[in-house]
Design goal:
alpha/beta, binds tricarbonodiimidic diamide, two-stranded antiparallel ribbon, 8 helices, 22% strand, six-stranded parallel beta sheet
Length: 225
């Protein structure tokens, strides 16, 4: 069964049996005050609209019985998977591994790496801790997708031009078709969101497709009815 989604730059043909939702880094470190995003000098409120949209996507995938994957940007407590170049970059208020109001910044198991309640993983959903911006770098994601016959990814998460865009490009290079849901992603710099969406779908979907949440929901509903 193939869902035909009214997407840009042209119709996205989504095989129901070969598609997973992947939500990128919907964790407190980026969405709540006191985390990594705020330490970098950002206004975290700008990302909030993505939470409800990701929640709606989750509900749709769960209702359809389609697989869901969550990622978190999270390092080992000894930071052995965090290159010094990443930790020492710039002059943030708090660096990766430093103690903040939600525990150690971007460290697995700390409160900051928890996924926000509205997008919390359900039993049976894969949760991947990733040390990089992309979800494929030093993770088991590619093997999981291959083992489960997944060829197509529907994507949401934060931030659009950092971890979401990196993941889309990594996925595209590995042969996956990717559809980014426009309301389900946000950036601390709204202009960067706009141009990232443009870049993804330019040149005949050079990286992937984008569509609105309602276009996605209606395309899926048409397929099931
Ligand atoms: N700083 C920023 O915009 N993003 C990140 O550091 N990580 C993710 O995008 N998840």
């Amino acid at each position: 069964m193939i869902a035909e989604i009214d997407a840009r730059p042209f119709t996205f043909r989504m095989p129901i049996d070969g598609t997973a939702l992947i939500l990128i880094d919907m964790q407190r470190d980026f969405l709540d005050p006191g985390g990594f995003g705020a330490a970098l000098g950002n206004d975290v409120c700008l990302l909030r609209p993505a939470v409800a949209a990701c929640g709606r996507l989750l509900a749709t995938f769960r209702a359809s019985g389609m697989p869901v994957i969550h990622t978190r940007e999270a390092h080992r407590p000894d930071l052995s998977d965090c290159p010094p170049a990443k930790r020492l970059r710039g002059t943030p208020l708090l660096r990766i591994g430093d103690e903040g109001p939600m525990g150690r910044i971007l460290v697995a198991g700390e409160a900051g790496t928890e996924i926000v309640t509205e997008c919390a993983p359900a039993a049976g959903e894969l949760v991947i801790d990733k040390p990089g911006k992309g979800a494929f770098y030093n993770t088991g994601l590619n093997r999981y997708l291959g083992d489960n016959g997944i060829t197509t990814l529907v994507v949401g998460g934060v931030t659009t031009e950092v971890c979401v865009q990196t993941t889309l490009r990594e996925a595209n290079d590995r042969g996956y078709d990717c559809l980014l849901i426009e309301e389900a992603t946000e950036s601390y710099v709204p202009e960067f969101k706009r141009v990232t969406l443009d870049m993804i779908r330019a040149q005949g979907a050079i990286v992937g497709w984008t569509c609105t949440l309602s276009a996605f929901e209606s395309g899926l509903a048409r397929c099931f009815h």
